[in-house]
Amino acid sequence: MISRQYIDEVQERLHSSCEAVCRHLLPEGRRVNKGWRCGGIDGREGKSLEVELEGSKVGLFHDRATGEGGTILDLWKLSRGIHFTDAVLEAAGFVGMSPPPQTSRVCETIDPGSYVYTPPKATEANRADIEVDDVPPPDDPPPLAGQSNGVGWEKCLMAFNADWADKIAHTRSYSIEFVNWLHERELIGVYKGAVAFPVHDANGEVVRIHYRTENGWAYYPKGVSGNGPLIIGERLQSAAHVLVFESQWDAFAILDKLEAHKPENAGIYSAFITRGATSNTNLSKLPVTSIIACPQNDPVETASKTTGRTPAQEWLRRIAMGIHADTTIHVAETPPHHKDANDWIRAEKPAHYKVFTQFVENPRPLETVDTGSNDTQPPEKQPHPILGRQKLTFPVPAGGIGYTDSAEIIFPVIGASKTMFIRGNTIHEIGRGNGEGDYLVPMTPDRFCNLVEGYGYTVKRRQVDEQKGLIFWRKTTFPLASAKILLTSPIAAAELPPIHQIPACPVLTPSGEVLGYGYHDHCGGTYVTGGAMPPAMPLPVAVNALLGLLADFNFVTPSDKARAMACLISPAMKMGGLISEDFPMDMAEADQSQSGKTYRQKLGVRIYNEVASAVTSARGGVGSLDEAISAALIKGRPFITLDNFRGLLDSTILEQAIRGHSRVNCRALRISAEVETRPFIWQLSTNGAELTRDMANRSIITRIRKHEPGYKFSQYPEGDLLEHVTANQAFYLGAVFTVIREWQKAGCPRTDDNRHDFKGWCQVMDWIVQHVLGLAPLLDGHQAQQSRTANPQLQWLRNVAMAARSTRFMGVQISTTQLVNIADDAGIDFPGNPNSKDAATLRAGKILGKLFTDTGGMPITVDGFTIDREIKIVYSDRGGEEQRFYTFVEDSAT
Fold first, then answer.
1. pLDDT of residue 809 exceeding 90
2. Domains of the chain (ranges plus CATH)?
């Protein structure tokens, strides 16, 4: 069988090469804007079928003529006319993946009689709480003639073939192993062409079939008693965790991620599925120590006009009121921005099982539920001192309830959900990027008012009738003025989890643990927003893979290549907190445009499944460099890139941020926030920016030369190198982790090279690039490049030398006037005052005079060029006068 992970990887690679896939499957179609259009799944010319090529919906297709739609793998299956499994294998070959390893099934025998369920008897007092089908008729009819198990469940099991297993696994984001496990335990089948589940009687016999129709769920046969719960797992009484769900889809999603189907987890998890909000909610005959109820997140609009409760709240109320006398109940909550557990799994595809063990092991205790009447509260439950029985209420500060009282009830609930965070002194949430990466968003009062009802709690105002001695709770909206005060409450800072970084890929910690999707306490608060878990691999495989990424770059020196490699590995060191000292800015410099300087930095971003925040070099006022940097810091994405920067890079906030051990106050787009600067990775690409001395000392400079015309770059099944890395992101992240683990295994050593202000980072990375990757020393020749970039006059001369290389003047003597013309033709500005009224030749003469004075008249060497000067007497009608001539020569080594 094919694993879910393998299918996801195939689909991710198809997404990264979506247009190539469309050309292959739908050859007569054509690209229109961001989609691929054709006349149908046979690929004929037309425009009724469209495949999304970009954005968050990449790979999804819809045919308006037939109503068909689905994922890119569904399209492959339909267009090729093959089974889903065959489509996955064929698509894997197309994107260059090896066949999947064969997985074995886990076979266990279900004991349907492990739980004896007796529906409650209908009385006038409880009749409203019982589904009609829950009440058995006076006499059960005999089993239908000619059908084993009474209803033919064996035929349903036989109809559930590999295609059905693939379909359920794919559409519901379950692992194929879990779906097969359900089938082997005879818990899933097919009836009338629809997915179906068994209904067992007290003896474990299947007496009804619960199946899906176009109009909803139905039971077969009609008129037969019993629509009891669906039980999954070992005997409920002995399970370590008993989970109660309304829907089987939610139960399957959580059990799959908890790996309940694996033999080593047998007896740990059991699930009780009620099959609806009002069915099978009387658990009084289930003598277990505790249960964990897993409600859905029904929107407020679905609340009953009579009770004010949503279906999920009603379900939870019935569960809580119907439990056994010796049973305690806790609640495990799905993140509030997802409607249910299966929606959560399908939307975010969290890969790491730790997310779900925390989901089960840290549920919220339910001290009291809002039952709606005074005579149904269990006597042993103690009411909340402020709310009384209204534990499912978020109280508005009013009617004797202060802001502190309200905050003490609201923020512990929100904090436990890990959906709002404290960053500096400001509350943030995680914004879901539209193909641009997730980011942090400061919480506004308006947004808080909109979100506060999404935590399963009802916002109410308490009113007291002193004459009658009564307290009334009335549903209301959360006041904006109260939200403004609560957002600055010290209780929020105490109860909400801190957030330090939001990497989009798993993180390797100093202990060697790899942190997957979800919130972790690591580094003062880390929320991993996505990314597949990286594979382990032998060290030679990892080294060859990483060196291969740099094979097509034309580095000026071997140490430039070493610095490029260090910048590929460095982000993992920062995210993991593996180096406590400051990290330098990755400065990529090239001799010409389109040399690959930005491309090299993009490779590093893609390895970490990230999208960099781009900063432009606007100057002053609205849209200034400091404001653009502030906006990027507020968003919180790890990578911040100053792309193709020109001119002087002089930013106080940037210098503070790169130092990394301070907080800065950022203001941008009417948003203000205090930001901790340590988690950011800074990149600068330029063909000749001017740096201040402090900025140069904070940078690691990597130089690249443009290849000669006609150079053939490597190609991959996915396209170019960037597309290849994107499609294999987890593999290359695994290669980085393997190299770092080798350094950890050696005892985290360092070299003793002191040629950079950021000694800690440089000494660690110098050891890794030399001793693990076999590259040149990290800092050879680097101080000269720092001096040049911090010297505006020398940087100007370097840019002129680059421009002269492509003219006929290289290697010949040129006058100052000719040198000025070369600079003017290349658009090279003079350093210093841009409003100077001095003639261009005079400004050039002053710059060159100072540089040659600094060398004592000796030739100037800068970035692979040597510039010599000769003073001659030139005669004219005015007589003889002294003139200076310059010769530019490129060193043979470059």
1. no
2. 4-94 (3.90.580.10), 383-497 (no CATH), 550-715+747-785 (3.40.50.300), 798-890 (1.10.10)
